[in-house]
């Protein structure tokens, strides 16, 4: 599957659109073909309000995409210092501890 509306909204800093999509039932952990999620997009964009909202709604904080980068790795690499503590404090979920498949996404 390609890029989803939730990922696009997170990538472009549209926090209210992210909220509306989540309220309408969008899958907070939906992935594109590379394992990229809305949380990866929010971390890339550097928007703390979007990252916080996605985490509140159950986004898996340590999920790595195809290139084995988690949202934390992305935020660190891009110098989004305000996101680092937010992502580090995110409570791990059982799904966060599932080993990645050969493509980087946790198996289900």
Distance between the termini: 16 Å
Radius of gyration: 12 Å
Poorly predicted spans: 94-98
How many strands, what sense, and barrel or not for the largest sheet? none
Total strand segments: 0
Average predicted local confidence, pLDDT: 83
Range of strand content? under 5%
Percent in helix: 40-55%
Helix-strand sequence:
HHHHHH
Q: Label the overall shape.
A: globular
* Tally of helical runs: 6
In the CATH classification, which architecture applies? Answer: Alpha Horseshoe
Structural class: mainly alpha
- The number of domains: 1
CATH superfamily: Ankyrin repeat-containing domain
Report on this model:
The chain is an all-alpha fold and 108 residues long. The protein has a single domain, classed as Serine Threonine Protein Phosphatase 5, Tetratricopeptide repeat (Alpha Horseshoe). Helix content is 45%, strand content 0%. The chain contains six helices and no strands. The chain has helices at residues 5-11, 15-23, 38-45, 48-56, 71-77, 81-89. Helix 1 (5-11) packs antiparallel against helix 2 (15-23) and helix 3 runs parallel beside helix 5 (71-77). The protein is globular, with a radius of gyration of 12 Å. The model is unreliable at 94-98 (pLDDT under 50).
List keywords for this structure.
single chain; 108 residues; globular; Serine Threonine Protein Phosphatase 5, Tetratricopeptide repeat; 0% strand
Question: What's the short story on this structure?
Answer:
This protein is mostly helical and 108 residues long. Helix content is 45%, strand content 0%.
């Amino acid at each position: 599957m390609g890029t989803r509306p939730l990922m696009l909204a997170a990538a472009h800093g549209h926090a209210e659109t992210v909220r509306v999509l989540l309220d309408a039932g969008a899958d907070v952990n939906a992935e594109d073909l590379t394992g990229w999620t809305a949380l990866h997009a929010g971390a890339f964009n550097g928007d703390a309000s979007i990252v916080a909202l996605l985490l509140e709604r159950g986004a898996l904080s340590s999920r790595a995409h195809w290139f084995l980068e988690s949202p934390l790795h992305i935020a660190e690499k891009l110098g989004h210092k305000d996101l680092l503590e937010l992502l580090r404090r995110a409570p791990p979920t059982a799904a966060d501890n599932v080993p990645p498949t050969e493509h980087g996404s946790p198996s289900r």
